Amino acid sequence: MISLRGVSLVYPNGTRALDAIDLEIAKGSFVFLVGHSGTGKSSLLRLLYREQVPTRGEVTVDATRVDKLRRSKVALLRRNVGVVFQDFKLLGDKTVWENVAFALQVTGARTKDVMRQVPRVLDLVGLAHKSRMFPSELSGGEQQRTAIARALVNNPKILLCDEPTGNLDPSNTNEVMDLLHRINLKGTTVLIATHNAIVVDRMRRRVIRLENGKIVADEERGYYLAAGGDRGTAAAEELELVRSRNGLGTNPLFSE
What we know:
Number of helices: 8
Number of strands: 10
Radius of gyration: 18 Å
Helix content: 25-40%
Oligomer: single chain
CATH topology of the domain at 2-83 and 160-254: Rossmann fold
Strand content: 15-25%
């Protein structure tokens, strides 16, 4: 589904964001991409939806060589790759319905398709009853669920999330991660770049760690802090304390 072979990315100012990345992600996977700020997580995601082009190497998404893709074909790629951002990127002068519909309208979708698809995804994210509200009238979690609905309205095969819980409190984080989990169960490949150690450690999915633009760990049931499950006693105890204070263990999704 996703393949990177020998991928490096060097920005015009000389910054090496990615260095000789080799990565395979299978269809239907749920994967966390972790690492400190500046390690290349967002840069890697941008390669997958053709916001950036690698300096070297091959990027393949759903059997399409994205690094060789002509600009005129990028819109078609993005119908199969939904993207969710930390800061939501909703249009403040449009309602929830209009924000989601806009993602279809810009692709030239027919009115009858818009009228069918928008209610479907709003129901999926639990916002059908708030379809006429504006982003400023929503909580942070509701804004992010609106953004997820917008990303899903074209029925993408892949959902890329760049710090989707970065601006959310623990309760809204639970709601958004539960939603992403359910979306994955329906067959969508989900790749999440995140700093949220609590979510990563609780969900125990595949964890890919980046440092200085390189993959330094890749574990099928990984932890946030280190490869091999060796997180360190003090760090592990600190995470358990935060979980307890925030009540994250009450959600079935975050149970062992």
